[in-house]
Amino acid sequence: MSDILIRAQGLCCSYDNSREHINVLQGVSLELQRGESVAVIGPSGSGKSTLLNLLNGLLVPDNGLLEVFGRDSTQLTEAQWAELRRTRIATLFQDGNLIPTLTVSRNIAFRAGLAGLQTHDGDTLLEQLGIAETAHRYPDQLSGGQRQRAALACAFAMQPDLILADEPTGSLDYATAERVVPLFFDAIRERKLGALIVTHNPELAQRCDRILELQEGALSPWVSPASS
Ligand SMILES: Nc1ncnc2c1ncn2[C@@H]1O[C@H](COP(=O)(O)OP(=O)(O)O)[C@@H](O)[C@H]1O
Ligand SMILES: [Mg+2]
Prior knowledge:
Strand content: 25-35%
Oligomer: single chain
CATH superfamily: P-loop containing nucleotide triphosphate hydrolases
Bound molecules: adenosine-5'-diphosphate, magnesium ion
Number of domains: 1
C-alpha cells in the first residue's frame, strides 16, 4: 500500500452566491504521507476550512488533481466518499460534529460502529482527554472545550488513516490544550495516521512535521518571521 495519503496538485475552488464569485483556492498543491502531520495556518477567510472539505469530499474542486489513498477523486462516487468518511477519514469540524441526540459514550460507540469497529476504550479515551465525567451527557450539556475533546474521542475511536482537523484546540484553555496536544501526536505516531491540522495554536503547529501557510489561494512552506 502506498504511503501517500493525499496528493493534490493545482486545486482550485470557488463559491458563487447571488452577488459574487469568490475564488478561494487558486492552485493548492500538497502531499501528505502516512505518519506525517502537517499544520496549515493562514488568515481567517483564506480558505483553510474549504481545503479540508475538498480533501474529505464534501466539496468538489473546480480544477486540479486530487488523489486520496491513491485514488483519483473524480473516480470516486458519493457513496465511496461517504464510506471513506465513515472508515478512513476523520474530520474534526470547528464546531465538534457530535450527534445531538446521543450521549458522548454513545457518540463514540456510534462512530466506531460506522467504521465497522466495536469500541472498548471509549471510557479510557475520555479519561485521557480529561472529560470522563461527560460520558453520559448530551452534546448540548457540554462546554465548547468538552465538545471539542468528545469529537476528538470519536475521531480516535473510528481508527482512521487520516485526520483532518479544523482548529482542534480552538476552544481549549492553555492547560487543557497542553494535555490534549500530546495525545494527538501519540495517536499519529502509534497508529501511523496522517494529519492535516488547521490551527492558530503555535505549539500545536510547531509540533507538526511541517507548517504550510495558505495565502492568496495557495499553500507554501511557512517561514518564521524570526528566520527571515
Ligand atoms: N458556502 C459558502 N458560500 C460562499 N462563500 C463561502 C462559503 N464558505 C466559505 N466562503 C467564503 O470563502 C472564503 C474562505 O472561507 P473558509 O474556507 O471558511 O476560510 P477559513 O477557514 O480560512 O477562515 C471566505 O471568504 C468565505 O467567506
Ligand atoms: Mg475555517
